[in-house]
Design goal:
- With 316 residues, the chain is mainly alpha-helical.
- The chain is 79% helix and 0% strand.
- Helix 6 runs parallel beside helix 9, helix 10 crosses helix 12 and helix 14 packs antiparallel against helix 15.
- The relative contact order is 0.11.
């Protein structure tokens, strides 16, 4: 008994010898290791950062070149250092807008009409088709979706000539409709809308709305579309940029230069550069002006995109 009491007293006096103290010490060591591991995980990868920096430079260098080239006169364009700025930017912009009584403004208005109108209609069609493919079951659904995937892989350039022949037979060639109508159906937009609708719109909510007597159109417009909005913003942005930069379709469809978008209009000016070298400066200035709306739209939609995603996370 005396030996047991002595051992018990020794353990109480020496905390290092007691079992609970050893147990309490182990999580501290584990926490230290996890803490050091967490710090290591937060360190950015130099390789990944370097790749991103190179990608950013690769994307920004042409824009910087256009900015510097648009600030030069026709004589300086081919006689000075590529990335050396000059002081003729405002004069070049004035010459661009004054060309043929403001024809560039007409091209810009046509481009806005094609891009905004086509992107809005395409987003609406993509939202309805994606919503139907994600939340409705019908015969031939899988085959229809596979055809849409095949349309994603098919280059749009291949369809330009057949579309022109169809529109020529219908008497719509060389009109605004010849560029707007082919832009409405976007297989990639339908694919994105279908994926996003299946992930963001719960079937339970649809069934509850139907039980309350809501019609399908009201369910789609009042419930499904707000939930799909971040994905639809992506569809709109992709389609807007695609139509804004589209060259082949309007080049084939249109013959009247008053209907041209900026891409085709600047191409006609470029062809005049062989005989009129001053046109090169006008073309470069027009290219600089044409990318400003794209940058502004991307920044605007990016803010909306992030706020919408944050709001959805808070609601969830």
């Amino acid at each position: 008994m005396s030996t047991a009491m002595t051992t018990s007293t020794t353990r109480a006096a020496d905390p290092a010898a007691s079992g609970p103290s050893i147990t309490r010490g182990r999580p501290a060591a584990s926490s230290s290791r996890s803490g050091s591991g967490g710090v290591g995980a937060e360190r950015p990868s130099l390789v990944a950062t370097g790749v991103l920096v190179l990608g950013a430079l690769y994307s920004l260098i042409p824009i910087v070149w256009v900015l510097f080239a648009a600030s030069k006169s026709a004589d300086e364009l081919f006689s000075t250092f590529t990335f050396a700025p000059s002081t003729f930017l405002l004069e070049n912009v004035q010459d661009l807008f004054a060309y043929r009584d403001g024809l560039f403004l007409r091209w810009a208005g046509n481009t806005v009409l094609y891009a905004v109108g086509g992107a809005l209609l395409s987003t609406l069609v993509s939202a309805a088709a994606g919503y139907g493919l994600a939340l409705f079951d019908f015969r031939g659904k899988k085959l229809f979706f596979n055809l849409i995937l095949a349309g994603v892989l098919l280059p749009a350039v291949i369809l330009a000539v057949p579309q022109y022949l169809l529109f020529a037979q219908a008497g719509l060639a060389n009109t605004y409709w010849a560029v707007l109508l082919p832009s409405i159906l976007n297989p990639y937009g339908i694919y994105l809308a279908r994926i996003y609708a299946g992930a963001s719109v719960p079937r339970e909510m649809i069934e509850a709305a139907r039980t309350d007597g809501a019609g399908e159109l009201r369910i789609f417009s009042r419930f499904a579309v707000p939930m799909m909005m971040p994905g639809l913003v992506t569809v709109f942005l992709f389609q807007f940029v695609g139509i804004w930069n589209n060259y082949m379709l309007p080049y084939i469809m249109l013959g009247d230069d008053s209907l041209f978008p900026i891409t085709v209009g600047l191409s006609t000016l470029m062809n005049q550069g062989a005989s009129q070298p001053a046109m090169y400066t006008t073309v470069i200035t027009g290219a600089l002006v044409s990318i400003i709306p794209l940058i502004a739209l991307f920044l605007l939609l990016q803010k909306y995109w992030q706020s919408d995603l944050t709001g959805g996370a808070v609601k969830g």
